[in-house]
Structure prediction request, 88 residues.
Amino acid sequence: MTLFAAATPASTAPTNTIQAALYLAQSPTLGLSTLSGFASSSAPFQPTLGSTPPTSWTIAINYIGGGLNAPAGIAADSAGRLVAEPRQ
Prediction:
């Protein structure tokens, strides 16, 4: 099975990699076993997820600390620092 077939949410298959990535982001439980089977266990793709596929393509990120009370927008930079725009 190909990436495009695994990333098909309904009857319309993606026609390019960006569209496949968008479909996977919109449906994080789509194609789990197929896509996890694409992973190589040889270097540099280690460690692997193991033989059991994940339950979804999501990850939780928890930030703690002050300054995040009622922000209008939150963004994270490449170092993981949060920037919050205050409400105006």
Notes: Strands lie at 73-76, 82-85.
